[in-house]
What we know:
The chain has 1 helix and 10 strands. The chain has a single domain (15-109), classed as Jelly Rolls (Sandwich), CATH 2.60.120.10. The chain is mainly beta.
Amino acid sequence: MIVRDNKDIIGGPREVKGEGWISRRLLLKKDGMGFSFHETIIPAGAKLTLWYKNHLEAVYCVGGNGSIEDLATGEIHPIQDGVLYALNNHDRHILRGGTEDMRLICAFNPPVTGRETHDSDGSYELEEEA
């Protein structure tokens, strides 16, 4: 059984930050669950162009607001508490923070190792365990 308290992750090596995001990685590849599980904070007003070409991602909003734009279709979907979106086709997208910070719960498949940050096209490279 794995039990983790997010308070123990904040400020430690499982908290990874980039421009416009903070990712708290609760479950990683080495935990052996077949997916990774994160809390991600998107600050109000942030704009991130992302493309998880190597991962599938499901995201559930538990606080705040913003939007996601599907770059293939131009559709923009509002995000607020209770909304889920899934990038089931490695969808290129723009994630925008709204009027308050968004708090998102995310699952990645394949799981991340914990060291990943977004590269120049907005994706995570596949990394092997150290």
